[in-house]
Each structure stands twice: as C-alpha cells, then as structure tokens.
Amino acid sequence: MEQRIYAVPVWRETPFFTARERAALAFTEAVTAIGVAGVPDDVYEETRRRFSETELVNLTMAVIVINGWNRLAVTFRTPPGSYEPSAAKRG
Fold first, then answer.
1. Which homologous superfamily is 17-77 in?
2. pLDDT digit string (tens) for 41-73?
3. What is the mean pLDDT of the chain?
4. Alpha carbon of 61 to those of 2, 58, 83, 90: distances in Å?
5. What residue segments make up the domains of the chain, in order of their start?
6. What are phi and psi of 40, to 5 degrees?
7. For burial by CB atoms within 10 Å, which of 26, 35, 76, 79 has the most?
C-alpha cells in the first residue's frame, strides 16, 4: 500500500494501478489543469467507461474540494505539514 502512495506522482510509469485507478488519476490531472486544455475527450471517455455517473460526479467533487484546499493553502502561505488538530479533537 505504501509503495502505491509513493508511486502516485509517477503513476504512468508504474505497474501498481488498475485501469480504473489510471482513469481516475488521468481525470484528476485533467480537472486540476483544466485551464490548460480542458478535459481531453479521450480522458473523459475512458473515465466514463470505468465509472458510473454518480461515481464520476463524486470523483469530480473530490478533485474540486482538494484543489480548493490546495489553493487556499498556497494563497495564505500555509507551510506543508503545519496543521495540528485542536486539543478538543485529539481527545
């Protein structure tokens, strides 16, 4: 499992991901960089083949939320790894 997490940045070059996971990763990259070229038709069609309509909506919303949090963190110069849960949440 840990190996797969470390391999995400080079997912195209590794054998660790299923066709469904590869479709999700390609779709995620396309949605994240949507201002460059939109979501290419081949990426969209492959993702539609691998995911139901509901799953595709859920995947898209997850990508949007993560991208939103990343944009907030970058904008406000939040150092990576600096988050610490409050004492109430820890325990």
1. AhpD-like (1.20.1290.10)
2. 999 999 999 999 999 999 999 999 999 999 999
3. 93
4. 25, 5, 23, 28
5. 17-77
6. -55, 145
7. 26
* CB atoms near residue 21 (< 10 Å): 14
How would you label 47-84 residue by residue, b for 16+ Cβ within 10 Å and e otherwise? beebbeeeebeebbeebeeeeeeeeeeeeeeeeeeeee
1 pLDDT more than 90: no
The predicted pLDDT at position 59 comes to 98
Q: How many CA atoms lie within 13 A of 38 on its CB side?
A: 4
CA distance 80 to 27: 25
- What six digits make up the tokens of 37? 């070229």
Give the residue among 5, 30, 29, 27 at the shortest CA–CA distance from 17: 5
